[in-house]
Design goal:
The protein has helices at 10-22, 51-64, 79-82, 91-109, 124-135, 153-164, 170-180, 192-202, 218-237, 241-244, 247-260, 266-276, 283-290, 316-323, 340-343, 404-412, 439-445, 505-514, 526-534; strands at residues 34-39, 68-73, 114-118, 139-142, 369-373, 376-382, 393-401, 421-424, 452-455, 467-472, 489-493, 498-501. The protein has 548 residues and is of the alpha/beta class. It is built from 19 helices and twelve strands. 36% of the residues lie in helices and 12% in strands.
């Protein structure tokens, strides 16, 4: 078959083959289709530290199917390590950096016929899917799989609270943490990392049934090898990511995320992936689909008993999708060349404990709700599946902070009491810049109890409680959250999908006319400055602004 490398002008083709020969390539192999193995392996991130071995399995599959693999790396940040300090500002912006780096490597070299992407964690998986859509050459995704925890989620959570209260020391907390995160692999809970690995599968970009396969199992190595075989079939048939990631596939994916109570960060990443496909996914899609898709799966943080590793023995994602068949589009395509209906034929029946039948759901609606009102004209998002039922209606006085640090100081000094609505602003994509997660704030506020958080920042996929984020427009864009004052009453009603600032229209107009966004006092890096100047709001997926 004609390959991309062999389409280069004769002289340049020879020079390119010569340079590849310097790297150890055998001349006769360079007439095969060349497949980029795009790895995000490093020794820092638990979900990525085993990807070097999986890449070898992928390469073996590519070679046996008649291709020639060439590997390169991109970056990957660990959200767990970046939490609670300025490093978190870099995490969401890294998504765009990863997309750009893959585009640069593929397009600059001009030799690749397809690519296999290896990633596991929060921003890396969506970035790789975005790159696949942007480049639109045959592509497949291999995710790292969940680690298998040794202790229950509740034990890990209890140890963290004990440390915060000063009841155990650092060494003991580390010991318990390693029991909860004992090996390489994606962290056990249904956070952004596992949710996005599931998204890769439901969009059709990774092999059916692969997302929940444990990280260090022999089957995980087989998944990688099989993906090496599959990419060659995609190249042969010229099946591209945009053929697979259709609008129907995105709707199916939103439905699965809602049925599982997946990470709120999907409201950022699915719109961004769709944007690269030339499609639109919005907050409205999440709210619309949530109203007819029930919550049928419970793993941490929506349960303190089960983790994502428990999903695989009961059927994983295919079982969930099988239960949702009545609300899914079944002719969507996956990388194995089959449509969804075919891929669900051998799905296991729901076990009833972790995955329930559609008509015996845990709740009638999905796990994410979009709230609107005079405080959030473009919407704000809450993981309703992780909110106690007695807090679905909540009113209280605002305690306003212009950064996460200000909020944490107030907690330490007893400045937040039960009944408060904590407002953390200037933490959006533009105002941060970088849109940090407020996960540490949600953990610490948990010791106060009966408190709501409202922010234009975002949350970890593991966050629970009445945590409302992704509020748009953000304070830095002159959104109403920027005019909230201490003591203002804020009314929240998840049943009615509303969030309301309790001031009259005249006062609202006066404040909006006379309040301007605050200027950041702290010098930021040039990278973050550039990100803040070029990004859009969270309601638009925090994608890059169009350059005119």
């Amino acid at each position: 078959m004609s390959t991309t490398l062999n389409k280069l002008p004769a002289y340049q083709r020879a020079i390119a083959k010569g340079h590849l020969g310097s790297c150890g390539a055998i001349y006769k192999n360079l007439d095969r289709p060349i497949i980029a193995v795009v790895n995000s392996w490093n020794e820092i991130v638990p979900g990525h530290c085993h990807l070097r071995e999986l890449a070898e399995d992928v390469k073996r599959g590519i070679i046996e199917a008649g291709g020639y693999p060439l590997e390169f790396n991109t970056i990957a940040i660990c959200d767990g390590i970046a939490q609670g300090h300025d490093g978190m500002k870099y995490v969401l912006p890294s998504r765009e950096l990863i997309v750009d780096s893959i585009e640069v490597m593929i397009r600059a070299h001009g030799i690749f016929d397809g690519m296999v992407l290896l990633g596991s964690c929060d921003k890396i998986v969506p970035a790789m899917l975005m790159a696949a859509a942007r480049l639109n050459i045959p592509a497949a995704m291999v995710t790292g799989g969940p680690m298998i925890n040794k202790i229950k989620p509740a034990e890990s959570k209890a140890a963290r609270q004990q440390f915060i209260r000063g009841e155990i020391d650092e060494e003991k907390l580390v010991e318990v943490t390693v029991d909860y995160y004992p090996t390489a692999g994606v962290c056990p809970f249904l956070g952004t990392a596992n949710t996005m690995c599931i998204v890769a599968e439901t969009l059709g970009m990774s092999l059916p049934g692969s997302a929940a396969v444990p990280a260090l199992s022999e089957l995980r190595h087989k998944v990688a090898y099989d993906t090496g075989l599959v990419i060659m079939d995609l190249v042969q048939k010229d099946i591209k990511p945009r053929d697979i990631m259709s609008k129907a596939a995105f709707d199916n994916t939103v439905a699965v995320v809602l049925a599982m109570g997946g990470s709120l960060n999907t409201v950022l990443h699915l719109p961004a992936i769709a944007h690269e496909c030339g499609l639109a996914v919005t907050y409205d899609d999440f709210d619309r689909i949530s109203r007819y898709v029930p919550l049928i799966t419970r793993v941490v943080p929506n349960s303190q008993e089960y983790t994502v590793a428990d999903l695989y023995p009961v059927g994983g994602v295919p079982t969930i999708m099988n239960e949702l068949q009545s609300v899914l589009t079944l002719d969507t395509l996956a990388i194995n060349g089959k449509n969804l209906e075919e891929n669900l034929k051998n799905a296991k029946p729901a076990d009833g404990a972790i995955i329930r039948n559609f008509d015996k759901a845990f709740t009638a609606e999905g796990g994410i709700a979009v709230l609107r009102g005079n405080l959030a004209p473009e919407g704000a998002v809450v993981k309703s599946s992780a909110v106690p039922s007695d807090m679905w209606i909540f009113s209280g006085p605002a305690k306003v902070f212009d950064s996460e640090e200000e909020c944490m100081d107030a907690i330490d000094n007893g400045g937040i009491v039960p009944g408060d609505v904590v407002v953390i602003r200037y933490e959006g994509p533009i105002g941060g810049p970088g849109m940090r997660e407020m996960h540490r704030a949600t953990e610490v506020i948990g010791k106060v109890g009966n408190v709501a958080i409202v922010t234009d920042g975002r949350f970890s996929g593991a966050s629970g409680g009445l945590s409302i984020g992704y509020l748009s427009p953000e304070a830095a864009e002159e959104g109403p959250i920027g005019i909230v004052q201490n003591g203002d009453r804020i009314d929240i009603n998840i049943f009615e999908r509303s969030i309301h600032l309790g001031i009259d229209d005249e006062e609202l107009h006066y404040r909006r006319t006379n309040t301007r966004p605050i200027a950041k006092q702290k010098d930021e890096s040039e990278f973050l400055k550039l990100y803040g100047l070029t990004t859009t709001s969270s309601a638009k997926g925090a994608v890059r602004r169009k350059i005119k």
